[in-house]
Amino acid sequence: MDIRAYSKILLTYIVLVLMQIMIFNNINIGSLGITPLFYVLFVLAVPYEVPAWLQLLFAFLTGWSVDVFCDTPGLHSAATVFMAYMRTKVLEFISPRDGYENGTHPYLMEMGWNWFLSYSIPLVLVHHILYFMLDVFGFENFFRTFLKIILTSLCTELFIIFSQYIAYRK
Amino acid sequence: MDSLLIFLKKIHLFLIFIILEILSIVMVVGGDVKRNSIFNTSANYITGKVYDFVWRYVGYFYLREENVALMQTLLKFNSVNESAFIADTARFHNNVDTVSKKLKYKYMTASVIKNSVSRQNNFLTLDVGRKNGVKQDMGVVSVSGVVGIVVGVSDNFSLAISVLNKKVNLSAKLKDSNFYGSVIWLGENYRKAILTEIPNHVEIHQGDTVVTSGYSAIFPPNIPIGVISSFEKNSEDNFYTIEIDFLTDLKCVSNVFIIENLMQEEQFSLENMEDKVAQ
C-alpha cells in the first residue's frame, strides 16, 4: 500500500459523502420515503490490503461524516462500522481458493457477478438492518420497518451495481 | 506476558470494533440535538457552508412549487387589499386604531439548505444564524403553513426541528370552532399527522382547517397546519381520532419565515411560575 492508494481512498471518501448529501439524500421514493444509502460503497470498495483495523476507522469516519450532515448522531457510524467488521468476515468466507491475489480489487468487473453479489448483498443488508433498527429504536411498526429495509437495500444495491459500470471499469 | 500479547493481537480487531460501536451507540442514545453541541449537527460551520453551496444549485428545482405557493398567498392578500373594496365615502370606516397596537411578532425570511422527511426525527438547517438575530424557540413557517421550531443556532446557521419529528407536539385548534388539541406526527407518511384531544361532541367535517392555537408562545395563532382528511369517533375515551393532511409539502419547502415572539420570554417566565405554584 503506497501513498497513491491511500489518496485514492481519501478521494473516494470525499466523493461518496458529497454524493450522498448532495444527490442521494434528496431522493425520496414513494410514501415510505426510500432514500438510497449509496455511500456504503466506500466500505465495499476499500482495497483488501488495507489493515482491517484501519478499515474500521475509515468506516467510522465515513459514517460519522454522513451523520453530521444528516443530523443523525451515531446512526450511520454504528451501521457502517458494523458493516466494515462484517466485511472482514464475509471476505474470509467467500475468498477464492488461493486467497485474494495482490493487485486485485473488490470490484464487479474483476471478481465476477457471483462473487460480487454474494459479497455486496449481505453487507448492504447488514448495514441497512442496523441503521433502520437504530432509527426506529425498537420493534414498533415492525412490518413497515422490514419493508423499508428491503426496499432501501434493493435501491442501494442497484446504484452500487450501476456504479461498478461507471467508475470501476477495468 | 507473551501469551497476553498474543491474545490481544488476536482480538484487537474485535476490540476496536466494539469501541467504535459503543462510541456510535452513545451518540445515538445521547443524540438529542438540544443537548448535543451544535458541532455535531449540520448547522456547524463546515457542513453549513457545504449545504449553502449545494443549495445554490439544488434550490432551482423547487422554484415551481414555491412560486405557486407564493402566488396563492399573494392572492389571499390581494383579496383583502384596499383596492379590492369600493370606497365607501358615505361612512367613516377608518376605525382601526393603529396607535394602541403593539408589535408582538417579527418576521424574517430564510432559506432551507438541508431538509429530510424520511427519518423518524427530521430536522432542517436554515441559512441564517445568531448574527441575523435568530434565537432558540422561534417558529418556522412557510407560505402555506407550519414547518418547524428553531432548536439550535450557530453564528451563520440554525437548526430547526421539523414538524415531521416524533418529539414535536404542536398546539393546534380547529379554525371554525376554536376547540384545541395537539398535532403529532407518527413517523410514517410525511404528508399526514394526527390531531388529538378534540372531544366527541364537537362537530367536525372532512376538509376542516387545523391552525396553530397561539397558546404555545412560539407560533402566532391561526397559522395553517393542515386539513382534516378523515376522522372517527372513539367510544372509549370520548375523543376523536383525527387524521390530517399537512398543508405544507415538507419535501419541497425551500423559503421560509422565521417568527420571533417579542413577548416570549415574558410568557415563558410566567408559565414557569405556574409550575412553581403547582408544586
Order of helices and strands of chain B: HHHEEEEEEEEEEEEH
Main pleated-sheet profile of chain B: 6 strands, antiparallel, barrel
Strand order of the largest sheet of chain B: 1-2-5-4-3-12
- Distance between the ends of chain B: 61 Å
What is the average of the pLDDT values of chain A? Answer: 88
Strand proportion of chain A = under 5%
**What is the distance, rounded to the nearest whole angstrom, between the alpha carbons of the first and last residues of chain A?**
20 Å
The total of helices of chain A stands at: 7
Instruction: Flag low-confidence runs of chain B.
Output: 82-93
Largest interface: A-B, 39 and 41 residues
- Uncertain segments of chain A are none
Characterization of the model:
The complex is a heterodimer of chains A (170) and B (279). By secondary structure, chain A is mainly alpha-helical. Chain A has one domain (3-166). Chain A is built from 7 helices and no strands. Chain A starts with a helix and ends with a helix. The model of chain B is unreliable at 82-93 (pLDDT under 50). Chain B is an alpha+beta fold and 279 residues long. Among the domains of chain B are: 38-78 and 102-165 and 255-262, Rod shape-determining protein MreC, domain 1 (Thrombin, subunit H); 170-246, Thrombin, subunit H. In chain B, strand 3 and strand 4 form a beta hairpin. The radius of gyration of chain B is 24 Å and the shape is globular. Chain B has helices spanning 2-29, 45-58, 63-79, 264-278; strands spanning 105-114, 121-126, 139-141, 146-153, 158-165, 170-174, 180-184, 192-196, 209-212, 224-233, 240-246, 255-261. In chain B, the strands form 2 sheets. Chain B has a 6-stranded antiparallel β-barrel. Chain B has a 6-stranded antiparallel beta barrel with strand order 6-7-8-11-10-9. Chain B contains 4 helices and 12 strands; from the N terminus they run αααββββββββββββα. The A-B interface holds A 18, 21-22, 25-26, 28, 31-35, 52-53, 56-57, 60, 63-64, 67-75, 77-78, 81-82, 85, 88, 134-137, 141, 144 and B 12-13, 16-17, 20-21, 23-31, 33, 36, 40-42, 44, 47, 50-51, 54, 58, 114, 116-120, 123, 125, 159, 187-191, 251.
